[in-house]
Specification:
563 residues; alpha+beta; five-stranded mixed beta sheet; 17% strand; disordered C terminus
């Protein structure tokens, strides 16, 4: 029995949770405390009360306990019906009963050994009610056995005297079963939470892996920084980009060390205007153009940033760098091509217009009539139109507008522009109207500002195919001088308004209506107004009309006396 006890002790010391062990292992561990306690008692009795060990009933109890111990070790309990192992604590009750009867008169309290099988039964998951019943009846049989086995008469006093022990074991059984159920419920709740945490962790891992795959699949450099501006994540495109814009010989750099340049491609971008610096100040921006890298291998980057916030406030930012070098090169090539072609067209056009002027003068001098003078006039008019288009293309390709500001009477400028637009308005059935204070003047380039008003009036008349009214108004407020061209024509949608000032853009409705145009007038007008330090805005509704407003700051405005 000592060898079996040693095996049970080794099982007790195994580094595994009890509920994770096999049934055979749990059976041995549950039986081991009783075996160990009885072994210690036998050692004590052999020293102090050797007579107990010679009593047949005590020896029978030891034999039953030894047999039970052998059963725990050799029977494959995992293969049997689960509740069948309850035979072991019942045999323990029998063994304890013999030990108690054999020690009667020499030792007291041995019936307390019944607490071990009581715990065993109560902690099992077979039957709560069965465990409580056996936890009372087993100890009761142990303490009543000497009463019924003796020759003395059975009295109520003799039966009631030892009843406290069984009642205590019953109370212990009730307490243990309640605790087991509560712990089982807690364990189930913990397992459910563990499962939830595991599922959440798996989901988070999957999403993180998916996010990495998505970020690495795009050709946009993505940089995530924390509240201090330290990089916490870079995708593959950002890693490659970072290597290209880092100075030669530097492996570990901060943003101020990187080769960032302004739009002139030579002036280093100030540290506080660089993307990460702006982002950690809490700025969100979009499509900011800058140049990066060494001059011989410079990249055009479009930068955007979005701020991350939590309950404490700013928590970092996500910055995207899009390499638009091919697009910028293509636009530059397109502008170079347009400029080159326009220059090539202007020379023969000038010659053609010169010869047409000579032909027109000779026809007038000779009094020539008929189809030829009319044809020359038509050719001259169309050549002038073509020359204006070439001039627009040149202005668009250059991207810059030079202005020569001077005092310009606004009323006189409006009158001149309306007279020039009158023939086109009459042909389209459009009525022209004006509204302007006679003393109002503006500091501007008269030729350029007239070009803006001509473009706006031409568009207003052109996009009023069913007639209507075009009104050219001017006024001054506390901050600026405003000129407005309002029509009652086709109008346009909000989507079209977003692209209206883009080069070569024409709305779908205009293309469907077959209205001629190159889509350059508004882009050129915007450049001219901005060269004066002003702005041009639009308010439009489909089917109602449009209103273009040119606002020039008072720094460019002055008052003149009426003539």
């Amino acid at each position: 029995m000592s060898r079996l006890s040693a095996r049970m002790l080794s099982a007790l010391s195994a580094n595994r949770d009890f509920h994770e062990m096999t049934l055979s292992q749990r059976v041995r561990i549950s039986h081991a405390p009783l075996v160990i306690t009885v072994t210690l008692l036998c050692i004590i009795f052999a020293t102090l009360l050797p007579d107990i060990l010679t009593r047949p009933l005590f020896q029978t109890g030891l034999a039953v306990l030894a047999a039970t111990t052998v059963l725990t070790a050799v029977v494959p309990w995992d293969r049997l019906w689960y509740p069948f192992y309850w035979i072991l604590p019942i045999l323990d009750f029998i063994a304890i009963g013999y030990l108690y009867a054999g020690s009667h008169g020499l030792a007291i309290g041995i019936y307390l050994l019944a607490i071990f099988p009581v715990f065993w039964l109560s902690w099992s998951r077979v039957s709560t009610l069965g465990a409580r019943i056996l936890s009372f009846l087993g100890p009761l049989a142990i303490v009543w056995n000497p009463v019924f086995a003796s020759a003395e008469p059975i009295t109520g006093q003799r039966l009631a005297a030892p009843i406290l022990g069984p009642l205590v074991t019953l109370a212990v059984a009730v307490t243990v079963t309640v605790m087991r159920k509560d712990m089982a419920a807690q364990q189930a709740a913990l397992q459910a939470k563990d499962q939830q945490l595991e599922n959440a962790l798996n989901l988070s891992t999957e999403r993180s892996e998916l996010l990495d795959v998505v970020l690495n699949a795009i050709d946009v450099g993505v940089l995530v920084v924390n509240a201090n501006g330290t990089a916490v994540h870079k995708n593959n495109s950002m890693e490659a980009l970072d290597g290209r814009i880092r100075p030669d010989g530097m492996k570990h750099t901060q943003e101020p060390d990187l080769l960032f340049f302004g739009l002139d491609r030579t002036t280093a971008l100030p540290a506080d205007q660089r993307p990460v610096a702006r982002a950690i100040r809490g700025e969100s921006f979009e499509d900011v153009l800058l140049y990066a890298g060494p001059p011989e291998d410079q990249l055009a980057l479009s930068c955007s940033a979005r701020v991350l916030r939590n309950e404490q406030g700013f928590n970092g930012a996500v910055i995207a760098f899009h390499n638009i070098t091919p697009l910028v090169d293509a636009l530059r090539a397109k502008d170079d091509f347009v400029s080159s072609v326009s220059h090539e067209l202007r020379t023969p056009l000038t010659s053609i217009m010169g010869y047409l002027d000579l032909a027109q003068e000779e026809a007038e001098d000779t009094g020539l009539t008929g189809a030829i003078p009319h044809a020359v006039s038509v050719a001259q008019r169309n050549s002038e139109r073509l020359l204006r288009l070439v001039s627009d293309l040149l202005a668009t390709a250059s991207g810059s507008v030079s202005v020569d500001p001077r005092p310009v009477p606004v009323a006189e400028l409006i009158s001149t522009c309306l007279r020039a637009a009158a023939p086109r308005a009459a042909a389209a059935g459009v009525e022209l109207a004006a509204s302007c204070a006679p003393a109002l003047a503006v500091q501007a380039d008269p030729v350029r500002l007239a070009q803006v008003l001509d473009n706006l009036l031409s568009n207003a008349i052109k996009y009023s195919p069913d007639g209507g009214t075009v009104t050219l108004s001017a006024w001054a407020d506390d901050t600026c001088t405003c000129l407005e061209v309002r029509d009652t024509g086709m109008g346009m949608s909000e989507e079209d308004q977003k692209e209206l000032f883009t080069k070569f853009f024409r709305t779908g409705a205009v293309r469907q209506a077959g209205i001629p145009g190159a889509g350059l007038g508004l882009a050129i007008s915007k450049n001219i107004v901005e060269a004066h330090g002003g702005t041009i805005t639009l308010v439009s509704r489909p089917g109602v009309g449009s209103a273009f407003t040119v606002s020039l700051p008072h720094s460019s405005s002055l008052a003149v006396s009426a003539p």
